[in-house]
């Protein structure tokens, strides 16, 4: 009877152990499955996040390339505008220079004044014209000034242009129809040193005028103002 009772105790203990093992195995399996499910969801989220990140990076690269292209295009447009602005500025300067040379604009600058006067002593009335300033004398001075770089020239304040004419009319000369009597003051804007040196060259214009009994005076000026041709012609 005692033996049977002991067997029952052993059997009950074994059943208890088996039940505990089954219960532990079930709980372990359940916990592992739950963890695996959580890990799968996390991996799925990470995968989605990676896909989104890669897409965003691709979009950023595309936008960056587009930005670089637009910046290059803007730089080209700015260069074109700068070139056009420079070209327009150059054209404006050239136009202003042309207006100055043809006498259509008022000019101011340093230069020289050449005064041509009749001889102070005339031996006889028969030879009087040999001691007077004539248009050829004025022409010589103007020609020398032009080839020496004069930017603008006037005779007795009257601006001359590429269409001007000078003729003798008795004791006076006519400049574009306006009469002027001696002395004749020829004003020229330009480098004073260069212009004066060109006239004073030995055997040059000044010496030729002196040989023709013309009194020649040359003076440098810090500032000379010359009106346009159409203003001068209506003084």
TrEMBL record:
Q: Which Pfam families match?
A: DUF881
Extent of the signal sequence:
none
By its UniProt entry, which InterPro entries does this protein fall under?
DUF881
**PANTHER family in alphabetical order:** UPF0749 PROTEIN RV1825 (PTHR37313), UPF0749 PROTEIN YLXX (PTHR37313:SF2)
Where along the sequence do coiled-coil regions lie? 46-94
The name this protein goes by in its record: DUF881 domain-containing protein
Sorted alphabetically, which keywords does the UniProt record give?
A: Coiled coil
Q: Which family does it belong to?
A: Belongs to the UPF0749 family.
């Amino acid at each position: 009877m005692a033996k049977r009772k002991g067997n029952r105790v052993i059997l009950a203990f074994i059943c208890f152990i088996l039940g505990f093992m089954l219960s532990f195995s079930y709980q372990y399996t359940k916990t592992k499955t739950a963890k695996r499910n959580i890990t799968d969801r996390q991996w799925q989220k990470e995968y989605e996040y990676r896909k989104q990140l890669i897409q965003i990076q691709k979009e950023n690269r595309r936008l960056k390339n587009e930005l670089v292209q637009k910046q290059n295009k803007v730089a080209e447009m700015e260069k074109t505008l700068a070139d056009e602005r420079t070209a327009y500025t150059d054209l404006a300067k050239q136009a202003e220079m042309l207006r100055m040379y043809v006498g259509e604009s008022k000019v101011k600058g340093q230069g020289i004044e050449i005064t041509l006067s009749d001889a102070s002593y005339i031996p006889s009335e028969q030879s009087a014209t040999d001691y007077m300033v004539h248009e050829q004398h004025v022409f010589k001075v103007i020609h020398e000034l032009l080839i020496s770089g004069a930017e603008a020239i006037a005779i007795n304040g009257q601006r001359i242009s590429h269409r001007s004419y000078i003729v003798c009319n008795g004791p006076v000369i006519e400049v574009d129809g306006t009469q002027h009597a001696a002395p004749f003051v020829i004003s020229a804007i330009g480098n004073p040193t260069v212009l004066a040196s060109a006239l004073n060259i030995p055997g040059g214009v000044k010496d030729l005028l002196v040989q023709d009994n013309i009194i020649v005076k040359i003076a440098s000026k810090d500032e000379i103002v010359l009106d346009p041709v159409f203003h001068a012609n209506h003084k």
